[in-house]
Amino acid sequence: MLVTPAIVSFFRGDDEVVNIENRKSVEKPVFATDTIQDATFMQKVICHVNDLKSYCTDYNKYYVDHFVFRNPMTKLYLAAKMRSGEGSLSETVISGKDGWYFLGEFYSNIVSESMGYRPFSSTDIDVIKQNILQCKSFCDELNIPIVFVVAPNKMTIYYEYFPYQAERKKSRYDQVNEIMPELNVDYIDLKSLLLCNKQEDEFLYRKIDTHWSFNGSYLAYKAIMGKFCSYCPQMSFRHDSMYVKAYDMLSGDLSTMMAMPEMREPVEVYYPKCKPEYDEASQVACGRFQYIKRRGTYDAKGKMLIFGDSFGCALFYFLASSCHETLFYQAIGGSHFDKDVVLREKPDCILMEVCERELEALCSVFGEHQYCE
Questions:
Q1: In the Cβ-directed half-sphere of 202, how many Cα atoms lie within 13 Å?
Q2: Please, what are the averages of pLDDT over each run of 10 residues along the chain (373 residues)?
Q3: Helices in the chain by DSSP H: which ranges?
Q4: pTM (2 decimals)?
Q5: Distance CA 86, CA 99 (A)
Q6: Rg (CA), the chain
């Protein structure tokens, strides 16, 4: 029983491995020894032994992530956990009430941060203030309006479906929300907006995904465009009648994390009657940050630049139908403002979006000043 998986894994090609989870698999290590110039025989032996130890450690991590029976065993384990009722399935996914699932503590300590048990320190708050003011000052010098928004965590809006009910304290979102008025920046409190617009028949977040639904992102879009249209009246505000609604059965990132990509839920989909043209997304490097760059063009006026994360993806497709040109720099891990992108693109307005679980990115909001290719 122990030897068979190892033998099968050895003869199985890497291209036959299918990653059923929503994360990056561990890559297969390559054994290589460092060349030491003018080293004694004993020094070379010690170096080779250390290289072999490192290779064995890395290969063990690779094997644990790729052994031949891992996928079916993972599916069986998670299926058994789901049948046991509400509660944690794993470190990554938490099973809630009425078919709702939530991201687990493994990702950015999301549960304890949403509950207010891991607040920002006073030093962190000072750094965040400084970074936000630097963004605003830079944009003011260029006469470019900038709007800041924070996309709330799913459990922040739908805590009633979370399986473990406990007293909540002031969260990182609440801390950021409190300092914005004193900074005199254009900021939209999406948490209050979404909580005030919750309805039983139209959920603002998806049950098997960590992100907001089209209804939730459309509410955010209307609030954002309400700000921008006052600065850039040439931009078009798209009303409900300008969108087509349809229903589709979609999977989610949480169902993928549970190794059940076949799990789907009915989702109300919005799309503009006249769709913008989208360039193929490409990955670019801006200083020390990695971005996924998307561009949308439409028969309207104005140019918008968006610095955001995965929550900004749904916003992008709404905003792209309100501007002639919309550029979305989706940071891989957090959301970061880059001066050189602004100088090169010369937008009419800027949206700075960061989700609640990545608020720590505001502590390092500026990238190194290198042009993106």
A1: 16
A2: 71 55 66 67 79 82 69 59 53 86 84 90 94 94 96 95 87 96 94 93 93 94 92 84 87 85 88 86 79 91 94 92 93 81 94 94 66 39
A3: 3-11, 41-66, 70-83, 110-115, 122-141, 154-157, 172-183, 190-196, 214-231, 253-257, 312-319, 339-345
A4: 0.77
A5: 9
A6: 24
